Amino acid sequence: MKIAISQPTFLPWAGYFALIDHVDQFVFLDNVQFVKRSWMQRNKIKIQEYEKLISIPVHSKNKFNQLIHEVEIDYRHFDHKDLIITLEYNYKKSKFFNLYFDKIKNIFEKKFNKLVDLNINLIMEISKIMGINTNKKLASSYNIKFKEKNIELLRKICLIENAKEYISTIGAKDYMDEIQKFKDTDIKISFFSYDQNFYNQLGKKFINNLSIIDLLFNEGPEAINIIRKNFKLIN
Could you point out which of 17, 148, 182, 232 has its C-alpha 20 to 30 Å from the C-alpha of 111? Predict the structure, then answer.
């Protein structure tokens, strides 16, 4: 069984969904320390010919060590209706906007208290739209107590799931010390690369590595085939 473990980021890029699609089990890493101003609370969309960061404000004052699943959305500084309007205004002319927009809008209108719940519900809905049926779980559901660095948590989850192969992002290669297997296991560690090639996009200038919604609104049902073509493993 192939497994991937990754933080539940906000409206992730296409490579995130390509990874989910590739594995048998995907685990949301929700029980590690939250990093402010990371992809956990922001991502990029296209506005005219430019990329723009959209962000979700969170309560972080005097909460330096809070875990991802503890982070609360700060609705005093976040109007979900403004974000919905931003998405609608900039993508309403895309070919498949009307097919998917209401499904994305409905997630924001639920006004989740926790950031992790907003992120995971968006990921689950987009996975459903794209036909990605990979099983998904929370890392916190394993009730693993650990004091070691995160690599040991990954190892323990893989052992519980009887994984044969762990798929990680290429950016984690240095962090993983370029090991080929977890300590005292036969679990193979592989790394994936995702290179987004051109796809139909609003405007004259193609912008790479935006949120998945850019690909989805512009390419619709073809999005799943596009992410599969651009995904590859690097050992």
Answer: 17
The residues with which 233 forms a beta bridge, in sequence order, are 192
| Helix/strand/coil percent split, the chain, to 5 | 40, 20, 40
Helix spans in the chain (H): 14-22, 80-91, 97-109, 115-130, 150-160, 212-219, 223-229
Closest CA to 212 of 79, 19, 23: 19
Q: Check: pTM over 0.90? Answer yes or no.
A: yes
Buried b (16+ CB within 10 A) or exposed e, 53-80: ebebebbeeeeeebebbbbebeeeebeb
- Give the DSSP letter string of 51-90: EEEEE--B--TT-TT-BGGG-BB-TTS--HHHHHHHHHHH
